């Protein structure tokens, strides 16, 4: 049994340690530091805002419609007299929840499909890639809107729908990354030994495209957050009265000349989150890139 | 001309800051001075600091490295004190660099002419109108045929040797006074290498250019340099005239290095140099070579020796250099395990032909166009059980293609591959049964490529053991340790990653992985050409041991004729995917041989300054075999006439199953 445990430790320990090490390296880069701070702050608010928000996000105050920022309402009130700060603090919860669930699904289905096609090649690869091309030619948000309009806008619909459509470009990235690895001798050696395709994918290919997929996932997350907010902005996302930045921007836009702070709050919140994710993704790519060229010391 | 040395490096130390914040030296107190017109060779294993030294002569250090001490002067002035603009004028002008792989140094989207003219514009004073004639003149000087045509070519349209010649021409554009050559012929075929070296020798004597030759190949150094510096772990361990250094090295390290070179005239296994050099800053207080040295005693381990002058004018860093004579007696070369070829066939290739040509839709619609000749054609060979067959030929001769077809990775166009008992093997890996797959294993050229960088050694070895024997748990672990033991690696390598191993250790793991399947036939594809000579000798020794113990059949592919000679029972010579000659190794390397074999053998460089290669055929590389006649017709130095162009030459049998495919009668081939 001791042999078994040695085996398992060999697999687990380096991977976990490696990613912990990479996280520290990311935090050491200026962009990574800012990015992780922004993402961390947003996660903090998303988790604890129900207890931190000064007012109930649904509480209407007909006496204070489009109120100016005051000591009680730091960012003023909206057209229904609700506290803008409270709604802003809570507004990222839905977006983060849906995207955090959708991104792993996206990466798993898009990544596996791409790696498989990259290894298999042939007519299946050709057919699927032309379909992917066709999908990429459409403006991304249109098919999403169709799905939501038909199936409804609950999280149980939004999550798989976003995951499906965001997985399509991932196929392309995963396939290209796989092509780099497939040409190498260790894959050839594995084929010559007679391993099955599944085994080659699992043992030879996935560990080598994992870095690329992680960076791609981080990039896709920022796009997905933006798309989610766009859907909300267009009225296809979160249903009122649940607070959401996209929806808040859409509502406050009408009164922009009277109460510009209504737009400003959720806009800053949304953009800091997206910038944060983007910076982290950049730093991650840089760290992993450096990791690759670091092999030779001299 | 003045007497000041053109390149003068004094007490140079170069280092980098390690993880722990300590300074780790890469070069330690190295001095090198070069007179005008002189050729100096720098040899050593990879990681010995030889390239760093050559680049430092340009005032250049790779990222992370910094100068700790010393001075680097070019033409009397300190290179590290010069400004950026001054350096830019000198580099590529008076001081040229010819890198190892110049194919990658040429811009792929620019024509050769444009690149050469650019070099001229930057580094010479000629008026613009004279650039083009000068460029053509330079291409002529590096002996390229039809310089006007070459001017209009793109880099990918030239062969590796031609690209290297263009790189030389570019370096000559600035009328250099000194050239730095970093492994200038590594990766080229033997014939091409010999031609390039002759060219460089001529240039050195015609133009009085000083040259610094960096190479791990002592044969190259022997051919070109009058003085040699041997580097070990960032130090000069021996410096002296090349004749002295290569014939009677006074330091145990070059002594071992020379013993580890396989010789063409000596069909014995070279002697491996055990151990590995210390990592930067990793050596103890004593001599860096002490732990690999047979002469080492307590003094060597505690005190670092300094360079001392010997009676014959060499500089040596060893306490016991006067005892080197006793060392040579202890080293004896080992006979490889030979096997007589009369046993049962382990593998039979019958009329094998392989083509990379895929007829596209266009070809099928207009079926008039003829498909090009097969890349590999008419290969009929049998390999006896327990025998080692060497496959030799230049790059592009189809050696690796044949191995891939045997491994089932390429589908032959026609012909059959049969295993023991005469059963034909299915063409593709997918069609073969696990038992058939297990019997044939392949070892690849470069272990960096053939080992998955993300898998530990344990995982790498587990792959074949799980697949063929279904081993798990303790049994898997025990068998893996046992395999590592057979390739002389200890069990603590199990949880390391390939990047934590040296080149030789990685190749041992690759060998262990192949032998995990307990194969009957092992295909070795240039498995030692990415390794240092000392490591190469160790891998060859290991293969020989495994063969003795397991009665394995090897097919050993290499472009290095001496390596093939050291290991093979029989040798087959390939040109353009066609067999020219095959037979017992001693006969093929003997007096009667095919003109092509003769050309190859003559071009081999021996690590002896008094042995010059004979260059008979041009080193042009042909892109496709001729449609008719003898495949070697276009380059053959002893072509006899139109029958070579039109008729396929017959197989002629010399003694001992030695077959030669040539129109020239055997009796005449014998006299050549």
Coarse shape of chain A:
elongated
Cα separation of the termini of chain B? 47 Å
The rough form of chain B would be described as globular
Helix and strand run of chain A: HHHHHHHHHHH
Give the proportion of residues in helices of chain A.
over 70%
Low-confidence stretches of chain B: none
Instruction: Say which CATH homologous superfamily of the domain at 93-245 and 273-291 in chain A is assigned.
Output: MetI-like
What name does the CATH topology of the domain at 93-245 and 273-291 in chain A carry? MetI-like fold
The interface involving the most residues is between: A-B, 30 and 47 residues
Order of strands across the widest beta sheet of chain B?
A: 6-7-8-3-9-10-12-11
> What class do helices, strands and sheet pairing of chain B give?
alpha/beta
The CATH class label of the largest domain in chain B is: Alpha Beta
Strand content of chain A: under 5%
Task: Give the terminus-to-terminus CA distance of chain A.
Answer: 41 Å
CATH topology of the largest domain in chain B: the name is Rossmann fold
* Structural class based on helices, strands and sheet pairing of chain A: mainly alpha
Describe the sheet with the most strands of chain B: 8 strands, mixed
Can you identify the CATH class of the domain at 93-245 and 273-291 in chain A? Mainly Alpha
